[in-house]
Amino acid sequence: MTRWLLVAGRVILGAILVYAAYAKLRVSWLVFAGSLSGYQLLPDSLLEPIAKTLPWFELALGILLISGVLARWSALVSTLLLGAFFAVMIRSYAAGLKIDCGCFGPGEALGPKTLIRDGSLVALSLAVTIGAFVSRKRQRDRADRWRPVRDNQRLDVA
Asked: What is the pTM of this model?
């Protein structure tokens, strides 16, 4: 049951990242650069490269999560990425900035609703990451338990 919850969480998170990337890629990168500029965090020289590459990175990360390839590491990267986004959003909201969130393309104001949504995404991502690492450790422990004993190994029976 836990395994299926982990897979479901990973696929849901991946689908959300793919959708977020799609929403940004379907409009000009200049629109996303405008959203990034509103956060007043990046120098103008970084707006263009980040606005052009971040949606593609989100798309690749979402595909990795959905496919399960490098599941532990893609879950960890998604947690770090979403955590960074959430921290910037909290900082901007606390500073009273009236800006476009930019999370799923243009037109969504940063506010309590977006903070709750993105905080929930961070929690989901963190749960998927922890679950992926814990399940991997359990798999390794199970494999070690059933590994045959070689002639030159001592068998400890306690």
From this structure: 0.82
